[in-house]
Inverse folding.
């Protein structure tokens, strides 16, 4: 006896319910080819994403990453005015998909609150544009982000 699901499928497709009644291979191809394609006019049109430029220089990509992180940085204005030479340098590792996978200090400022705000900026961003193929081995090892009090004062 045929399985109930195959009977239902056979009824829906107009095919025989038993293997003994199955059409020849050519008939099956004809049957399958006669099924119309139904397209959804409301479906979004898929567009191919452009391939990233494989030869982007490190300073260009690094500058984009730094700008995104520094835009999220919210240091204490009073602390920077009191000590404009304060600086923290952190190294962030970036995966092929643009997510941050590691963080290590290169130079800490000596002020825990200032350093914490630098780390919070990196965590707030979390993911950046995926690196171009030529830079993936480099940024997976780390990209330096410099948090300079003097530069922040000039920009604000």
């Amino acid at each position: 006896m045929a399985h109930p699901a195959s009977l239902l499928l056979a009824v829906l497709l107009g095919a025989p319910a038993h293997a003994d009644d199955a059409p020849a291979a050519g008939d099956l191809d004809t049957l399958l080819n006669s099924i119309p394609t139904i397209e959804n006019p409301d479906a979004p049109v898929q567009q191919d994403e452009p391939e990233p430029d494989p030869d982007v220089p490190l300073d260009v990509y690094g500058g984009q990453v730094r700008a995104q992180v520094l835009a999220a940085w919210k240091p204490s204005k009073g602390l920077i005015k009191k000590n404009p030479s304060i600086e923290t340098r952190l190294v962030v590792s970036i995966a092929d998909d643009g997510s941050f996978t590691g963080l290590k200090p290169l130079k800490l400022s000596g002020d825990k609150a200032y350093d914490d705000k630098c780390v919070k900026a990196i965590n707030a961003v979390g993911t950046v544009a995926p690196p171009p193929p030529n830079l993936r081995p480099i940024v997976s090892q780390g990209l330096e982000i410099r948090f300079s009090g003097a530069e922040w004062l000039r920009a604000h």
Notes: The chain has seven helices and three strands. The chain has two domains: 4-33, 58-155. Residues 4-13 have pLDDT under 50 and may be disordered. The first strand starts at residue 87 and ends at 94.
